[in-house]
Write a structure and sequence with these properties.
Blueprint lengths: L1 E8 L15 H13 L3 E9 L8 H11 L5 E4 L2 H4 L4 H13 L3 E4 L12 H33 L14 H12 L4 H8 L3 H17 L1
Parallel strand pairs: 1-2, 1-3, 3-4
Helix pairs in contact: 4-5, 6-7
C-alpha cells in the first residue's frame, strides 16, 4: 500500500533566539520504521518547518493536493497536532476532504486516530464536530459577556451583533474559493449562512480594490 509521511517541526525551544528549528529526522526515522512494520510503501515525505496554525504550509498544501489526486492511499503522521493546529473546524475539513477521496490518516503515537479502520473516521469527526460546537458556544458566551459590559457602561445601543467568520473559517473559505466552489457550496461546507459568507467576500473584494 502506498502512503505518504508528513512531518512538521517548530522552532527549537532552546534555540528560539537563533530561529533554529527542531530536526525533522526525529519524527521521520520512527515514522519510516512504523510504515515498514505495516509493509507500507512510502512514496513521498512532506516536511514543513513552521507553525501548524499556518494554513499556507507549502508541503502540507502539496500533500493535500497529491492526496486529492489519489497519489497514495494514506498519510502517516507522528501526532494529530503535527498534521494541523489550525483549530477544530479546518482540521475536521481536511480529514473529511481526504476521506471523500478514499485517503486515510493515521497517527503513529495516537492509536485512536486511524481513519483506515471502519467507523473510526465517523467517530473522530463526531468528536471534532462536538469540539467545534463547544468552540462556537464559547465565542457566543464571550460575545454576550461583551454586550453585557457595554450595557453596564451605557455604550450598547441595542441590535444584534454582526455575525462574522472565525479566522479558521476565513482560511477555509479562501481555499475553497480558489478551488472553484460556489458561495452556496462553501456556506454548506463551513455551516454558515450564505448572507454572512457573502458579506465576508464583499469586504475582502473591497480591500483588494483599495490596494
Amino acid at each position: 500500500m502506498k502512503v505518504a509521511i508528513y512531518a512538521r517541526v517548530s522552532l527549537d525551544e532552546q534555540n528560539k533566539d537563533s530561529r533554529q528549528f527542531q530536526d525533522p529526522e526525529n519524527q521521520l526515522v520512527p515514522l519510516r520504521e512504523f510504515c515498514k512494520s505495516f509493509k507500507y510503501e512510502v512514496v513521498k515525505e512532506y516536511i514543513d518547518k513552521m507553525s501548524g496554525a499556518n494554513p499556507a504550509r507549502p508541503d502540507f498544501r502539496k500533500m493535500m493536493a497529491d492526496g486529492l489526486q489519489r497519489r497514495f492511499s494514506g498519510i502517516v503522521v507522528w501526532k494529530l497536532d503535527r498534521f494541523s493546529r489550525e483549530g477544530v473546524i479546518p482540521t475536521m475539513s481536511y480529514i473529511q476532504r481526504l476521506k471523500d477521496r478514499g485517503i486515510w490518516l493515521k497517527s503513529m503515537t495516537e492509536s485512536w486516530l486511524d481513519t483506515s479502520q471502519e467507523g473510526i473516521t465517523e467517530i473522530v469527526l463526531a468528536i471534532m464536530s462536538w469540539a467545534a460546537s463547544e468552540e462556537r458556544k464559547k465565542i457566543s458566551e464571550r460575545t454576550k459577556a461583551g454586550i453585557a459590559r457595554k450595557r453596564a457602561k451605557g455604550k450598547w445601543k441595542g441590535g444584534r451583533p454582526k455575525k462574522r467568520l472565525l479566522p479558521e473559517q476565513e482560511a477555509i473559505v479562501l481555499k475553497l474559493q480558489k478551488e472553484g466552489k460556489s458561495p452556496l457550496q462553501i456556506s454548506r461546507i463551513i455551516k454558515v449562512s450564505r448572507y454572512t459568507l457573502e458579506k465576508f467576500l464583499e469586504v475582502k473584494n473591497e480591500n483588494k480594490k483599495r490596494f
